[in-house]
Amino acid sequence: MRRIRADTVKDQIRGEIISGALAFGARLRIDELASRYGASHMPIREALRSLAGEGLVVTEANKGARVVTIDERHVAHLFSVRIALEVTLAREAVATIAEADLAEIETLERERLALADEGRFGEAVETNQRFHRRIYEIPGNAEALSVLDRHWLLLAALWSRFGYRPERLGGVASDHDHIIRALRQHDAEACGALTAAHVTKTRQDLIAQMALATKAQA
């Protein structure tokens, strides 16, 4: 069997979780994965350990690994953590944001709007993540960023699986405009409040999409 790196296998498994080829809750058996990806057992095990750290895989004693099981309660808890972190980082960004930072953030928002206008919603969602991450990089809190990045991988899988409402894009544009204005005015209180409202709306949208999918399957 040809040698395949654990990072390569990890990328393949992650991609299939995000695309839906590997369903939420699906059992991940070492032998089956080795055959699926043409890899030996060792890189498969390493990949699963790494994906568990990203929150996409759950490992259980004597039961092996499975794709994480997602429900509305899980999503609500995830967003409770995100709201706390994102508000803190947004408020802290106000204190040290530079003109160059603002220029990059505004450029990302223009790119996101252009992608949305072209109907390239998946790419618009990715650019939206880059917009927010660029703001949250400013305080230099690497630990908080690592948590948000891990969440993003799971959220990408959820958005891919359950879809998103294109009509929400107008609301996102308005929210982003106000957040940029608060950053430019160095208004930490406003930036924190706007960020909290923005992330709360995102949570509501995702949970609503999940409910629709559940209803359609009933």
Round the Cα radius of gyration to an integer and report it.
Answer: 19 Å
Q: How many distinct folded domains?
A: 2
The termini sit apart by 43 Å
Series of H and E elements: HEHHEEHHHHHH
CATH superfamily of the largest domain: GntR ligand-binding domain-like
Low confidence ranges: none
Number of helices: 9
The chain-level mean pLDDT equals 89
Give the structural class: mainly alpha
Strand fraction equals under 5%
Number of strands: 3
Name of the CATH first level of the largest domain:
Mainly Alpha
Question: Strand order of the main beta sheet, please?
Answer: 1-3-2
How would you describe the shape? globular
State the CATH topology of the largest domain.
Four Helix Bundle (Hemerythrin (Met), subunit A)
Assign a percent range to the helix content.
Answer: over 70%
Major sheet size, sense and barrel closure: 3 strands, antiparallel
Explain what you see:
Helix content is 76%, strand content 5%. It has 218 residues and is mainly alpha-helical. It has 2 domains: 6-67, Arc Repressor Mutant, subunit A (Orthogonal Bundle); 72-217, GntR ligand-binding domain-like (Four Helix Bundle (Hemerythrin (Met), subunit A), Up-down Bundle), CATH 1.20.120. A 3-stranded antiparallel beta sheet has the order 1-3-2. Strand 2 (57-60) and strand 3 (64-67) form a beta hairpin. Helix 4 packs antiparallel against helix 9 (188-217), helix 5 runs antiparallel to helix 8 (168-184) and helix 8 (168-184) runs antiparallel to helix 9. The longest helix is centred in the last third of the chain and has 30 residues, at 188-217. The protein is globular.
